[in-house]
Amino acid sequence: MTRPSLNRRLVLRLVAGIVLVWCAAAGWLAWRSLHEVDEIFDQMLVRSAASVLAVMPAAPLSGVAAQLPDRPVLDSDATAHRPAITVRDARGRLLAGSTELPALEFDPGGAHLHTVTYAQRRWRVFQRWDAQQKYWIEVGAPLDERDELMRKLLAPALLSLLALLVLVPPMVFAGLRSGLKPLRQLTRQLSADTHAAGASLTDARVPVELAPFTEAIDRLVARLERSLEHERRFTADAAHELRHPLAALRLELDLAGRDEDAAARARHLQRAQDALDRMQRLVAQLLMLARVEKLTELDDAGPLRLASVAEAALRDASERAAACSIELSLDHDGNDFVLGSRSLLGILVQNLLDNALRHAPAHGQVNVRVGGRDERVSLEINDSGAGFAADDMARLGERFHRPEGSVGEGSGLGLSIAQAIAHLHHGELAFGRSALGGARVSLSLPRVATDAPHAPVYA
Q1: What pLDDT band is residue 284 in, cutting at 50, 70 and 90?
Q2: What is the pLDDT of residues 104-127, one digit of tens each?
Q3: Strand runs (DSSP E) across 37-165, as ranges?
Q4: Is 405 left (phi over 0), alpha (psi -120 to 50) or beta?
Q5: HEC profile of 208-260
Q6: Tens-digit pLDDT profile for residues 216-228
Q7: Distance separating alpha carbons of residues 50 and 361, to the nearest angstrom
Q8: Residue of 298, 274, 257 whose CA lies nearest to 454
Q9: Among candidate residues 311, 426, 451, 301, the one with its CA nearest the CA of residue 376
């Protein structure tokens, strides 16, 4: 199937428009020229009649009517034909006449112009009375003389227009081909294997008409590169982190198969189960992180109370805290409406709370405080654990980074997921020392009015 050509389409449309304009211009020129020539032709007849009446005697002469000669006024000019003239008196007697002019009936009416056909020729005739109404005159001239004048006037103009019509399409084609050269260069640049990854197509050489197109391509390429980078990171992280639990699972299953002691076999199988559970948690967190980092907007964003999200997370964690005799508490001032996704913010708070419970000692405390200040809403989680080491502060939130002194079977992805969700909500995480002696993690989000409608999508 032949692909449509932008160059051919532009040429055809421009040429069609030029032909249309040419036809309109030629038609207008012909109409205007005919109108002007008609006026000149009629004025010539009117002036000829006035000139003849000006030399007529005061009283009509009696006798035989005079015959005007049918010949050129000047022998040296064969084209200088005089008009055919007929003169009558008030009673209609013929005083002077021309054999060229058709014998028209005496018309005592007012001055007027009309067209007649005589001897297979069309004539333009003017008739009128003199001022005293003693003489009635008609002056005529064949219209083929007018047509000849029209041809002489129109031929050069129409030939010039025709030459213009012939020359314009090649010039349009050449101009379009030259004008579309940046588009062809852009196509070659996109097709070239040497186009560097991350290089921008938009530069000072790109015409202003193509700039939006190249900018859109740059944005698309940037999104694709980010997606590919996420996929590469996900694959690399999954391969790296799953290597150890897989090796442990294989080793424990191998030892369980070799050991004949039932108790030892049970211990090996339990450790294999633990490795499998760790793999399951790791894969779930990797998938969650990949999903959150891939999002560019929140489809389910709406106004909600951040304290209600914290309350739900505390209810879920209450059984675990009770098992370790850890005291959970929540403080809030009610000024905590934010715009966001309840499910994602729930995951964020659960991850932060899970870290706090993991590092809080038995009979310790974990306090959650929610409140609004100015245009921000903050959620703080404080624990009575060991807190963050000063050297770890800069690396908190990195993938698979576990601060020194971390306990439990964490994978180092909880804070990474929380930070990605915070950024998606135009928020930020901050880390510091808690008044309880342990770690403090603070989430800050933009505050919205309590009666805010469903807000525009985050971008």
Answers
A1: confident
A2: 666 667 788 888 887 778 888 888
A3: 66-67, 84-89, 94-97, 112-118, 121-129, 135-142
A4: left
A5: CCCHHHHHHHHHHHHHHHHHHHHHHHHHHHHHHHHHHHHHHHHHHHHHHHHCC
A6: 877 887 878 877 7
A7: 128
A8: 298
A9: 426
